[in-house]
# Entry
Amino acid sequence: MLDAVDRLKPQWGGQLASVEFAVEEVPPASELTDGPARLASEPIPLGRADSASGGDPAAVVLYRRPLEARARDRDQLGTLIFDVVVEQVASLLGLTPETIDPGYDDRH
# Structure
């Protein structure tokens, strides 16, 4: 995850300076979907972005086990982690993933 953040810092370092980045094993139960929505293409979240609120800073959290389960190998895991970081940073900043990383669209 830190490598992914480092790749974004040259262009987005100012906006990311106060954002905390973390990894959790799995998403909390409150983020898991049950019922018909479970049939969606991505029923288990790979990460989340939390806006700053009160005294808490903005945060991007990735979920290790779902990411590892989705990736076929270490290289794909690295690409997947970068894409999820890009998606979550874009969500946090109110931008598109393609704005955060122009190569994002080429991978999707």
